[in-house]
Amino acid sequence: MSEDNTDTERFVEEHERQINDLLQDVEDPAQTSDDDGFSMQLGGLELGRRDFMKAGAAAGVASAAGALAGCQTALPDSATPNDSGDGGSQGSSSGHGHLVAPGEKDEYYGFWSGGHSGEIRIIGIPSMRELQRIPVFNTEAARGYGYDDQTTEMLENEGGGYTWGDNHHPNLSETDGEYDGEYLYVNDKANGRIARVNLKYFETDAIVDVPNVQSVHGCTVLSPDTKYILGNGEFRTPLPNDGRDVNDPDKYTALFSAVDPESMETVWQVKVDGNLDIVDTGKEGRWAIASCYNSEEAVEIQGMTHDDRDYAKVFDIPAIEEAVDAGEYEEINGVPVVDGTRDSDLNEGDDPLVRYVSTPKSPHCVEVGPDGKYAFIAGKLSPTVTMLDLDKIGEVDDPSDAVAGRPKVGLGPLHTTFDGNGHAYTSLFIDSQVAKWDIEEAANAELGSSDPVIEKQDVHYNPGHIQALEAMTTDPDGEWLVSLNKLSKDRFLPVGPIHPDNDQLIHIGDGEKEMELVADHPAYPEPHDCIFAHKDKIDPATTWDREDYEGEKPFVTEEDSGVERIDEETVHVKASSKRSEYGMFDFTVKEGDEVRLTMTNVEGVRDIIHGVAIPEHDVNLAIAPQDTREVTFTADDPGVYWIYCTYFCSALHLEMRSRMIVEPRD
Ligand code: RUQ
Ligand code: CUA
Predict the structure, then answer these.
(1) Whose CA is closest to 390, among 342, 435, 357, 347?
(2) Which of 67, 131, 307, 428 is the most buried (most CB within 10 A)?
(3) Are 229 and 173 in contact, with CB atoms under 8 Å apart?
(4) Atom of ligand 2 nearest to the CA of 649
(5) What is the pTM assigned to this prediction?
(6) For position 19, what pLDDT does the model report?
(7) What's the domain range around 595?
């Protein structure tokens, strides 16, 4: 690089032009030809990009791209994986490759709940590569989430002001029983909330702090059209919990809540006996089935596990809606609460709101099979899974007569998933295994028979949820199953006393062959569950659509950039950002001013994000192309404060700076 000024300018211009060409090519390949022969002096910046490899002909990077292309041929889709460990008891002999070659994409999106990290993680299947993280109940500096005004206000106001959450059950929105790719919903077990993630932008856009409950554990959408998000109140409390009945646990109550998916408001709740653990719905929009492990209504573990039987509760959604419409409720903290306890008048007669079905000891999961015929309720402290016939449950006088099967699958059954070919797979927490069994055979066998069990696969160790591809839809895809193991113990290099979890990838094919353990995947504590959607069902935007925030926030161009004094102590600073400069090289405010900074990223191309950091003011924005973000802060002390970009956006990223000058107020 020459010292000479004009040379430097030329270099910079050329560099910007090359990046623009590349990005243009990514956006619209027809607009640029493959062989415009530029040489990429700073090619290293872009080498990792899949789309750059597509462009292919850049002279300066031809050899590197060639090397990567070489990798591709060395790693075809069917390659034997080399990172799979020995597959425990079964080894990896048939070579079901899960590796996805450089530049290739996964077939499925996996959406992982992040447990008490409070986030959602996007993991590609089958590669198990982590693609992205979406902060939900946590704050996340890397995405500026919980730093700009909008997300801070959402977390503070609707979100209740908690600094963390414990998300367990991710759910995808459905239309006509199919994933429509619009939203993901997830619960917060810790603070009784439900959040919505917008899948156009892969961003959390709404949170509801559900009234009258301390914990929302089980969480599901009502199939087939996402009429409600349903949440299980796990912890029984006095109702309302305002100091009454504190020493009278008999009077504590658990609530089943319905949230409107659009307004994200709690529309009704149902009071029940016992507690509420996990929930799933039938495929026709009528039944929601929840497990209850503490029918004893005890407040310590000995009491909670005392009885040999607890129950599942079957909620009749239309019957509940009717009761609400008829005004048969008590309004508590603004929500209509109907009485679904066993002795309630509303549970008398042919059309009870809630049916209580006796099931063996401390059941955990409820999952409804693909055809919607059975709900599968795992025993946890019983080695069985109870199959409840949902076609019958509305017909029989005694709900126990709707029990259609109860195979004995092994110790500590927690969750069940499906391959769409008549097999169920149940995780066995205590046995550290996944049991595969035949659903029809279980329906025909004696209750308690282990004959329907076909095969068991060791996992490492102590699985909670297991999930096969699109197993929660009416048409599961089989092929891969992930076992989310709570403990990894000795499976990875030791990293101190807090161990990662271990998500193991298991090949199941169409269910006709043996299961095969294919990969270990360490997971940051502590994911609980995951859900998969074929890539064709998810269609994220690559840049923002400014119409989506029109009227709420401005789009600030370079010309609009400037400082507007609102009053003695308030200023509004507006600025654009692009490679590699902000709309203003500096701006001046007065000591003590409240500064509202509105910043737009005016880039039209994808993957060029600009950050805004202002040292000593705790300002941290991440702004994607065509997006606007705002932050309000106080310029407490006079001085000069550099503003810099946190996202590595160009070769002149370090030079992408501005100054905030805070003048003494005098
Ligand atoms: S739970 S390990 Cu929160 Cu889904 Cu069953
Ligand atoms: Cu903009 Cu770095």
Answers:
(1) 357
(2) 428
(3) no
(4) 2
(5) 0.88
(6) 62
(7) 552-663
